[in-house]
C-alpha cells in the first residue's frame, strides 16, 4: 500500500522558446514567486499555495513529461509494490533532498512519487 502525504507539484508543458514569456506571465500576471535554482530540464519552478508549479519547454507531439507528483512516506515500499504488480519504474535527473521515481498508469498518464530525505 502507498501512504500518500500530499501533492508536491504539477509539471505542465510550455512551447519551446517561450520560457521568458512564461516567466513574465506566471510572475507578473499571476503574481507567483519563482523558486530560484538550476532545475531539471531547465524548468521554471513557482510557489503556488503549498505546492509548486513546474513549467518545462517541450516540443509538440504525443509524448509528454507532464505529471502530478505526490509526496509519500514509504518510497521504497511503494516501488516494490508497483514492481510486484508489473508496473515499470523509471527515473529522471536527481533533485537534492528528494528521492523519486516515475511510473505510468494503464492509459499512459505519468506520475511521480517522491520522499524528502535529510
From TrEMBL:
UniProt key word Transmembrane: no
Keyword Lyase carried by entry: yes
PROSITE patterns: VOC (PS51819)
Pfam families xref list: Glyoxalase (PF00903)
Single Gene Ontology MF annotation: dioxygenase activity
Signal sequence bounds: none
Domain spans labelled VOC: 6-116
Keywords: Dioxygenase, Lyase, Oxidoreductase
PANTHER family xrefs: FAMILY PROTEIN, PUTATIVE (AFU_ORTHOLOGUE AFUA_3G15060)-RELATED
Protein name (database record): Catechol 2,3-dioxygenase-like lactoylglutathione lyase family enzyme
The species this protein was found in: Larkinella arboricola
